[in-house]
Amino acid sequence: MVKGTVRRLFRLPPPPARTPSSWGRGTLFGMTTAPLRTLLNRDDLYSTLRRTAGALLGGSLLLTLTPEPAGADTYRWIGDDGKVHYSDYLPPHDINKAYWVINSQGVVVKKVEPAKTPEQIAEEQRLAQLRAEQQRRAAEQAEYDRILLDTFTSVADLEETRDRRLATLEGLINVAQRKINNLQQQLARQLERAANTERRGEPVPRELADNIKVLRDQITHEEGYIHAQRVQQAALKERFGEDIARYKALRQRR
């Protein structure tokens, strides 16, 4: 069967019978051959041709079955004119636009977002900083809530602590006020001395004038201290008011 295929492929005549008289000169593919007795017998020739034909047929089949290489990808984008464009490459002036990559089967295999503008980048950074600040505050609030619940056992406990701290500040204010009263008495005596001196037509001594100034400065300092303690008292009341409300809300969640 194979020999017949080889003969049809190469259009060879049927092989002659193997007799001694058949050895000698002949033709091969239209060319006169040298004596084949010492070179190649007919069986070897047909075996060689059969292998050659098999290789050719196998190569042809391999070429037939081997798929063609895939075509290049196609790019799709919307140009400045608002129209959809297709090409196997992106023009340089459109490289920052959004585009889609389409394979040879017409399937979108990739989508690339447009390049961000400096304004968009700045806005993203601003939002990222805002989120970071919100997360930081949330973490601080969570820690404060934990301390609040661990420190106080009840609302009454909070109120007692508030009142105790307010009383401490009030005690400091009372001390400063008594000091002011004492300074004012001293100042009154010094002023009386200075007035008597002036009524006699004499100049006020430098030491007396300096004492009066020191006493007035001390009184001003103590009055400022009292004001600061009053401000602190107000802030303490406000903070404890917020803590008590927060404490109640946290207890209700449990």
SSE topology sketch:
Elements: H1 2-10, E1 26-28, E2 31-33, H2 42-65, E3 74-78, E4 84-87, E5 99-102, E6 108-112, H3 118-151, H4 155-199, H5 206-253
Antiparallel strand pairs: 1-2, 3-4, 3-5, 5-6
Walk me through what this model shows.
By secondary structure, the protein is of the alpha+beta class. The protein has five helices and six strands. It has helices at about 1-10, 40-65, 120-150, 155-200, 205-254; strands at about 25-30, 30-35, 75-80, 85, 100, 110. Strands 4-3-5-6 form a four-stranded antiparallel beta sheet, with no helix packed on it. A hairpin with a 5-residue loop joins strand 3 (about 75-80) and strand 4. Helix 1 packs across helix 2 (about 40-65) and helix 4 runs antiparallel to helix 5 (about 205-254). The longest helix is centred in the last third of the chain and has 48 residues, at about 205-254. It is elongated, with a radius of gyration of 55 Å. The two termini are about 95 Å apart. The model is unreliable at about 5-10, about 20-40 and about 55-70 (pLDDT under 50).
